């Protein structure tokens, strides 16, 4: 899951270290600063608000983890993508390819659409 979200944020124009075993992704959208400024996104908290209000994506701004307020970084847990119910979580865990499970694929597609909106005009 973390690798799939990592791939999405990289395609969305962010810089990000590849995940190595955890379930958090910590992308940096500094390369999109000019584009984001046109959307009134100028720091971590406005990035957090924009993603939630306009894209339905919940993240925690990097400022909550010690980043400067101006930093365009956030942290997000990818474990929630496994599902909202025990049955969904188990289906994802049991699947040979969890990324192909319907609710997981839908969540990843929504995240990708949100980051495409973020990076677009």
TrEMBL record:
Keyword tags: Aminotransferase, Pyridoxal phosphate, Transferase
Cofactor(s) required for function per UniProt = pyridoxal 5'-phosphate
Enzyme Commission number(s) of this protein:
2.6.1.-
Q: What GO biological process terms does the UniProt entry carry, in alphabetical order?
A: amino acid metabolic process
Does Zinc-finger appear among the keywords?
Answer: no
What Gene Ontology terms describe what this protein does at the molecular function level?
Answer: transaminase activity
Q: Which InterPro entries match?
A: AspAT/PAT-like, PyrdxlP-dep_Trfase, PyrdxlP-dep_Trfase_small
Top-level EC class, please?
Answer: transferase
State the family named in the UniProt similarity comment for this chain.
Answer: Belongs to the class-I pyridoxal-phosphate-dependent aminotransferase family.
Name of the featured protein: Aminotransferase
Per the UniProt entry, what species is this protein from, by scientific name? Frankia canadensis
């Amino acid at each position: 899951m973390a690798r799939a979200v990592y791939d999405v944020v990289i395609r969305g124009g962010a810089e990000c270290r590849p995940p190595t075993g955890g379930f958090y992704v910590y992308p940096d959208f500094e390369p999109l600063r000019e584009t984001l400024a046109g959307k009134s996104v100028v720091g971590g908290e406005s990035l957090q608000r924009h993603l939630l209000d306009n894209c339905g994506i919940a993240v925690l701004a990097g400022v909550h983890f010690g980043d400067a307020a101006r930093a365009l970084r956030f942290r997000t847990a990818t474990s929630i993508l496994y599902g909202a119910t025990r049955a969904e979580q188990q289906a994802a865990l049991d699947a040979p390819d969890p990324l192909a499970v319907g609710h997981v694929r839908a969540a990843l597609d929504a995240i990708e659409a949100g980051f495409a909106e973020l990076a677009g005009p």
